[in-house]
Structures
1.
Amino acid sequence: MTAHPTVRARWQARTRAEQASAHTMELLAARFEALVPERAGVATALRRTAADERRHQGLCAEVVTRLGGDAEAGGPLPGLPPAEGEARGALMEHVVFLLCAGEAIAAAMLRVAAGAATAPGVTELLRGIAADEARHAALGWVALDAALDGLSAEARREAAPRLSRQVLRAVVAARAVGAAGPDGAAWGLLEGARAVEVAKQAVEAAVIPELVARGLWAPPGAAP
Ligand SMILES: [Fe+2]
Ligand SMILES: [Fe+2]
């Protein structure tokens, strides 16, 4: 099937992003196991998340092959994202950036992209992945609550601005989505500007209210 080279490159990038996500989830599961050993069920769920990401990688690679591209993901794998706190504090930041915000944003972007796709099978594929990413976002709140458990009111207050900054970082990360090319929408791709718009909406609707409910929303510039 023919499509603009941009479409193929973006699906290759999607494949690599899923591969990277699988790796990051494994790292997060190990970190969680080490720091919150009393909640082994959450670490197990994080490992299942990594398995989902590997499945997504395979599904995206099939699209790359359909587009005549090289589906080999390859490339260096990322470590855990930057954090300001230490130990359990950093773990909570990772959970917010990767799962609570990152997965909520991914799910929203995939749902919007699925709605506009017309290439055969792409809408169904993206809806399926979006449903998984939404589950991963929900797991994020379970993981965050497990990591928060037993933390003093003061430690929570201290963590709040760092967690809030991770939400803002997740929105900024959506800017990395580049141009989609002339037939990008048909192939389930969002333009960069639209991606940021969708990311902002997702965070306002589904992430900030959850942090507010936990007394953890303290964005820069807000009164203490
Ligand atoms: Fe995924
Ligand atoms: Fe995910």
Note: The radius of gyration is 18 Å.
2.
Amino acid sequence: MSEYVHAAKFFSAACGRDRRLSRGHRGRQVWGLPPGRRPADRQNRRAVWPVDRARLVDTHIHGLLGHDVMDNDWSGIAAMSQHLVEAGVTSWLPTTLTGSFEQLKAVCTTIADHAGEEPGAKIQGIYFEGPYFTTEHKGAQNPKYFKNPSVAEFNEWQSAAQGLVKKIAIAPERPGAVAFTQAVAAAGTVVALGHSDATFEQAKACVDAGATVFTHTFNGMSPLSHRAPGMVGTAMALEGVTDELICDGHHVRPEVATMLIRLVGPEHIALITDCMRAGMMPDGDYTLGEFAVYVKDGMARLKAGDSLAGSVLQLKDALSHLLAWGAGTPAAIVKMATQTPAASCGIQHRCGSILPGRAADYLVLDPNLHLLETHLDGALVYQAGH
Ligand SMILES: [Zn+2]
């Protein structure tokens, strides 16, 4: 039996206000209706007015609810999946920190062995944040594990992950970064640039070699100056790249986030959370990797040095923040949390759009982009206030 859903607006490539959901191999899938045609079976038509529908994809998230991907504990990762739907996330990439070769390989094996068993938001791959970074902009990444890029080493991680590593961030000034980018990008993994003191020329050389993403733009990278554009200037100036942005209001000032969005456009901005284990948890003391962190006033900071240590942002809140900042139309804002991040990691054929044949994963948002409901495979899995 089909069910029809109706919305004031669908944030999707296809137009119209109705969608038919029919049973597919895993659960309900989305099927379109010709524009202007209303469902014949009105009884099965579910109308919530006014609502907007979208599906959020978090492509850079380390932890939640006391768990961290680097704990290498499948039950913790599964719990993250289960509760990410409360943040409006229907697809995500578990994200690593810098660590030893063995530690990272073990995390790859664990996720590859269990991916698909997660109870909530779907794991669409793994994001390797590091370990090929440089110390000048280490942020909260542990420099003990920083080293030069090695394709052979990466290939071992990728095979332990059974091909699930969709994206890896590196610092372009590391010796061998250009050759690494060429090889890894050609083999189908997205290369991102971050935690780096690179010059414009160094960063551009990696983009020319195939790098396509800038990791949490402005944070952990050489700043823009009018004679030395640095990593930030490269992220702003080059075409064909996607800039990750943490919109919690603390990592980047609202005016600056808005400026970047206006400059490069929503099709080149991927909203991420960079959330660490204190996400959805009370203020207090936590750890990030091997470092002590404290959480207060919506920020996670290293106890030593006070550097920001990831965030406690939920992706759904980035939408309402951007709307309040006047950073774009609702459609543009939703695009930055759905289609753009999915495309930036090469997973747009699996998530990020409500299209015929796709799993019926979608959200119901109010006109202020607050989350009302999350649906996975056509089933309601979260309702705000319940
Ligand atoms: Zn980072």
Note: The domain at 3-52+356-383 is CATH 2.30.40.10 (Urease, subunit C; domain 1).
